């Protein structure tokens, strides 16, 4: 088995039938498997430079016009999430092999989208965004480009975690875009988060400190910044036969929910060499506000600034009743981030949920949506059948 990651260092470790390669960037990770790959760069209306990755067809050249699917990653992740566990299970490859033209987006601030027309990526101004801006600027720019480039009138959308939050933001505000989707699939859908068990989110939310104070504690710019050295070090420490490998696994379980059965520990170096990929502190704070407020609404700056920004003392709710695109909600019982009760509340607020799927494995957690050993029979078969049924 081959496991590829996208770091700039290269390291090969041989153990039985496993070769772990830490090499440069997502396109190389994909091309090493024999699939074609393209990189596409777009600019948002507010000046951020974003990179998308595309797998247009399978290993054999194919000129057939394929239905388009756009994949969008979760918080502190990147397009690598959809390929990092390899062609045998990763979602991007499963979709390509089932006849789809696969595009993978990257939000501002992550590994592949850390540039701006005028702002320095090390400046506070660069990192002054939440998932609200990702929804109304990043997604708009990327989806416009994909539709134009492919000549397609509609596409399928699959978002994991924050990737679902951002599409709900977009479709509730830029309502015309509801017409451009065959389907919108939300994996571990995040909007309401009052019942979230995530220790990080709950700790921040329960502190009830003013935004300015929490920002000073967590940092005003990037949340948990990492570099090539620290990611590569983490990958090495989590390899097979390393004494810290189980510590690495338990860190993931603490964040996502415990599911030891579905984590292939051999893949931990690849996962941790790609994650965290970058996120702003403001993204974290925005989610923590969803935890303590039990609302799905725009960023809360505090009463005075809210009055300036929104004209009201509290931020406006996202108008979920304006989302008319056909939505599929895919959730699980052991997700410590997207709790079942919160997903139920989201379900009740969306007017056009056409698929509501509870993963039939009680231990399935937040990260299992992208990394689980049995992710294909538990989730992807059902997900891709849903897309097939909506393509027309």
Structural overview:
It is a single chain. This protein is an alpha/beta fold. It is built from 14 helices and 12 strands. The strands form 2 sheets. Strands 4, 5, 6, 7, 8, 9, 10, 11 and 12 form a 9-stranded mixed sheet that branches. Strands 1-3-2 form a 3-stranded mixed sheet. Helix 3 packs across helix 4 (162-173) and helix 7 packs antiparallel against helix 9 (268-274). The longest helix is centred in the middle third of the chain and has 20 residues, at 131-150. The radius of gyration is 20 Å and the shape is globular. The two termini are 37 Å apart. Residues 1-24 have low confidence and may be disordered.
Walk me through the topology:
Elements: E1 2-5, E2 12-15, E3 18-22, H1 26-31, E4 38-43, E5 48-55, E6 68-72, H2 91-97, E7 101-104, E8 115-116, H3 131-150, E9 155-160, H4 162-173, E10 181-187, H5 199-207, H6 211-218, H7 228-237, H8 245-256, H9 268-274, H10 281-293, H11 303-310, E11 327-331, H12 340-349, E12 353-358, H13 368-371, H14 375-390
Parallel strand pairs: 1-3, 6-7, 6-9, 9-10, 10-11, 11-12
Antiparallel strand pairs: 2-3, 4-5, 5-7, 5-8
Notable features of this structure?
single chain, 392 residues, alpha/beta, nine-stranded mixed β-sheet, three-stranded mixed β-sheet, 14 helices, globular, disordered N terminus
H/E topology pattern? EEEHEEEHEEHEHEHHHHHHHEHEHH
Report how far the terminal alpha carbons are from each other.
Answer: 37 Å
Shape: globular
Number of strands: 12
Main beta sheet: strand number and arrangement?
A: 9 strands, mixed
Radius of gyration over C-alpha positions, nearest whole angstrom: 20 Å
Low-confidence stretches: 1-24
- Helix count equals 14
Report the mean per-residue pLDDT as an integer.
Answer: 86
- The helix content is 25-40%
Beta content comes to 15-25%
Task: Give the structural class.
Answer: alpha/beta
